[in-house]
């Protein structure tokens, strides 16, 4: 089969069909990304449940998977309209100028989001800005440009979707249906080749998954104890975990925490980069520590790390998670004492929460007034 006749294959029939699925990917990616942002930066009206325990794992896995699937879709969509991008004159009217400008914003924001998103899941921060803030802001630019593009192009999209995919071409030419099948295959391969970092049973075929799960005690590590600067303080003999509720306060040594009733839960650790794994966590139910200082069950709780002040060294756990009996102050992971890189001497592990909010190297637990 030759490439002869490819220019006749390009056009609205391909663009509209690929664009429809690209729009779905952008929509899912935006909604799931917005959920992740609201979990990390909650608003008074926002409620995120503590169960099912795999809920955040699902939403953030969808976020990353649809973002990756969008890449081959974007490439084919750009290929299908490439000749039109260089039509002359560039601007025929003020309306045409607006249309061309919206396309420029759409393409630029889409490329920016997919490229920086890929770099983020690979933890390659070569760009000189704080990824979460910029990625979140640009998502609104992308979605706004998509909606504007659809609004301007609705008549063209409807007409294009009504065009048949099958039509007569000269012998040996690639058909529209072949291009579409190749596009769906490419999107599927890209997804399967990377989604194993979220779906463990696909890990053997996900040859391009950026995270394999390898690490201390069978779990990967985003931030080590050395990077956090806690190697000495976490292992110091004078270490104490302090639990406070107003004037009421209790302190616990590692030995005293270990002497309390221990509970084991099987919970996933799910990172914002899309990586997640199940693990067995053993420790003290958070609610029991809060009861020791007379805390009511409807109060949020602040987790304070030994790590020097930074974006996630202080986190707030909503009351619905704090009172859930699956929320632990974990001392052991998969039957072993926590590795320093996983939060020794103790860490928070709560259901349906991003890994970045599962505070490691705990020093204080404060009931929020």
TrEMBL record:
Organism domain of life: Bacteria
Domain Oxidoreductase molybdopterin-binding: 235-368
Record field: transmembrane: 21-40, 60-82, 103-127, 133-152
Gene3D superfamilies (alphabetical): Oxidoreductase, molybdopterin-binding domain
Alphabetical UniProt keywords: Membrane, Transmembrane, Transmembrane helix
Entry keyword annotation includes Transmembrane: yes
Coiled coil: none
Protein name: Molybdopterin-binding protein
The organism of origin for this protein: Mycolicibacterium murale
Lineage, highest ranks first: Bacteria, Bacillati, Actinomycetota, Actinomycetes, Mycobacteriales
């Amino acid at each position: 089969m030759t490439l002869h006749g490819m220019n006749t294959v390009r056009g609205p029939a391909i663009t509209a069909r690929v664009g429809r699925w690209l729009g779905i990917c952008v929509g899912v990616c935006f909604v799931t990304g917005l959920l992740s942002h609201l979990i990390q930066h909650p608003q008074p009206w926002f409620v995120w449940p503590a169960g099912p325990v795999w809920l955040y794992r699902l939403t953030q896995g969808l976020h990353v998977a649809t973002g990756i699937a969008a890449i081959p879709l974007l490439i084919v969509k750009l290929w299908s309209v490439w000749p039109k991008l260089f039509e002359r004159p560039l601007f025929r009217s003020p309306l045409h100028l607006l249309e061309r400008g919206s396309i420029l914003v759409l393409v630029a924001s889409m490329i920016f989001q997919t490229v920086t998103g890929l770099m983020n899941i690979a933890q390659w921060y070569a760009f000189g800005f704080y990824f979460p803030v910029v990625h979140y802001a640009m998502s609104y630019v992308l979605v706004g440009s998509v909606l504007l593009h659809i609004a301007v192009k609705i008549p063209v999209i409807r007409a294009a979707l009504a065009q048949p995919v099958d039509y007569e071409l000269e012998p040996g030419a690639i058909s529209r249906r072949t291009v579409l099948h190749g596009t769906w295959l490419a999107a599927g391969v890209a997804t399967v080749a990377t989604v194993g970092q979220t779906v463990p049973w696909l890990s053997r075929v996900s040859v391009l998954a950026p995270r394999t799960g390898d690490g201390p005690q069978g779990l990967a590590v985003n931030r080590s104890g050395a990077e956090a600067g806690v190697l000495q303080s976490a292992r110091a003999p004078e270490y104490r975990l302090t639990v406070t509720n107003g004037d009421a306060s209790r302190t616990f040594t590692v030995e005293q925490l270990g002497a309390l009733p221990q509970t084991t839960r099987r919970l996933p650790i799910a990172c914002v980069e899309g990586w997640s794994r199940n693990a067995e966590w053993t420790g003290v139910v958070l609610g029991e520590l809060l009861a020791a200082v007379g805390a009511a069950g409807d109060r949020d709780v602040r987790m304070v790390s030994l790590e020097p002040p930074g974006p996630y060294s202080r986190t707030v756990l909503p009351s619905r998670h704090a009172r859930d009996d699956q929320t632990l102050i974990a001392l052991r992971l998969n039957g072993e004492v926590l590795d320093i890189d996983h939060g020794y001497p103790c860490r928070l592990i709560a259901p349906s929460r991003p890994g970045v909010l599962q505070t490691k190297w705990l020093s204080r637990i404060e009931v929020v007034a």
